[in-house]
Amino acid sequence: MDLKHLFDWHLEDDATWESQLQRTRHHYRNPSRSLDSTPRNLGLIFFNSSLRTRTSMEVAATRLGAYPSVIIPGAGVWGMEWRDGCRMDGESVEHIREAIGVLSRYYDGLGVRLFATGTDYALDQNETRFKKILESATVPVINLESALYHPCQALADAATIKEHFQDDVHGRKFVLSWAWHPHALAHAVPNSALLMAARLGMQVTIARPDGFELDSNILQLAQKYSSQHGFTIDESDDQDIACKGADIIYAKAWGSQLRYEDADAEKALRDQYKSWQVRKHHLGNAAFMHCLPVRRGVIVEDAVLDSSEAIHLLQAEFRLHSQISILERAWNLI
Questions:
Q1: I need a surface site. Which of 25, 82, 122, 253 has the fewest CB within 10 A?
Q2: Quick one: what percent of the chain has pLDDT higher than 70?
Q3: Which of 9, 58, 35 is CA-nearest to residue 159?
Q4: Which helix (H) or strand (E) holds 234?
Q5: pTM for the whole structure
């Protein structure tokens, strides 16, 4: 069976990417209910917390005439075992293979949110856990954020940018700016934001301190996209210089890869850069974006979020429209 899983956009061709962008913007401009006559059920498995992803998927499913239900492992659902070939005589009651196999028989599609462990580098880099879900499912699976990717966010972000600039996107300067955070956050959102902007043909600059490099494989893929448009990915350890002349400043915190080796050393390194925050003077004529939730006064100044340059709420709204288009594709409605 040819299942229309959505693991990440880099696995899909340009025609699919462009089609999904167009459908997302169509739903933004035509917000009426687009009910489908076939009754469907959507299972949403949240191993990690969510506000926008959960609610936008619930509303998106409802608008397509589907019934969504949320499953939260560890909260009224049996604890899951991920290892293969192990003797399950510990706390985990149900193996992920049986869990996904059963849910595939109840639902017409599954959305799964499964963050990086932050402690097992090989497991996270290989997306071992998410791939096990894909292998076990017999219905389409949508990645609601995994260790490395957040395709739902990426589609919404791309549609937001194209809508904001009325398609005049090529060659505009996109700055992905690191910001301090009290925790070592995962790389899925910055990875996806980088790939999205490069694929749109924007001139991308990554502003981040030394020691907070993104994964080299992700950077190589982003460079491949940029090269197709005649650009290169720039990096800078000077936030002020990096933000000059920006059309978009996308703020996001992420941890150093050092977290896998020495969490205390990672925190000590990260805490040297508490001053890294997007401030009003960085904006100039740029629009401000953030995936949310955002810590005011930590990631970004209130003066930025409360300004007319901030388009983070429009960006969040596009999560709903992107989710509708993703479900349409999964269920062959377009």
A1: 122
A2: 98
A3: 9
A4: strand 234-236
A5: 0.96
DSSP3 helix / strand / coil % (the chain, rounded to 5)? 45, 15, 40
Environment class of residue 11 by beta-carbon count within 10 Å: exposed (0-12), middle (13-18) or buried (19+)? exposed
Sign of CA dihedral 255, 257, 259, 265: negative
Is the CB of residue 90 less than 8 Å from the CB of residue 103?
no
CA pair distance 273, 275, nearest whole angstrom:
5
Query: What is the layout of strands, in order, in the sheet containing 109-113?
Result: 66-71, 40-46, 109-113, 141-143
Return the number of other C-beta atoms located less than 10 Å from residue 304's C-beta: 25
Distances (CA, A) of 298 to 28, 253, 290: 31, 10, 13
All residues at 6 or more sequence positions from 64 whose CB lies less than 8 Å from its CB, including other chains: 34, 35, 36, 40, 324, 327, 328, 331, 333
Cα(183)–Cα(329) distance, integer angstroms: 35
Report pLDDT digits (tens) over 278-311. 999 999 999 999 999 999 999 999 999 999 999 9
pLDDT in tens, 160-190: 999 999 999 999 999 999 999 999 999 999 9
Alpha-carbon span 73 to 22, nearest angstrom: 35
Q: Which amino acid is at 86?
A: C
Is 278 in a helix, a strand, or coil? strand
Identify the bridge partners of residue 69 per DSSP, sorted by sequence position: 43
Q: Is the dihedral of CA 141, 146, 149, 152 positive or negative?
A: positive
Q: Give whole-number Cα distances, 333 to 104, 301, 324, 330, in Å.
A: 19, 42, 10, 8
Residue 40 has pLDDT above 90, yes or no: yes
Question: What is d(CA 326, CA 152) in angstroms, rounded to the nearest whole number?
Answer: 8
State whether the Cα torsion 207-209-212-213 is positive or negative: positive
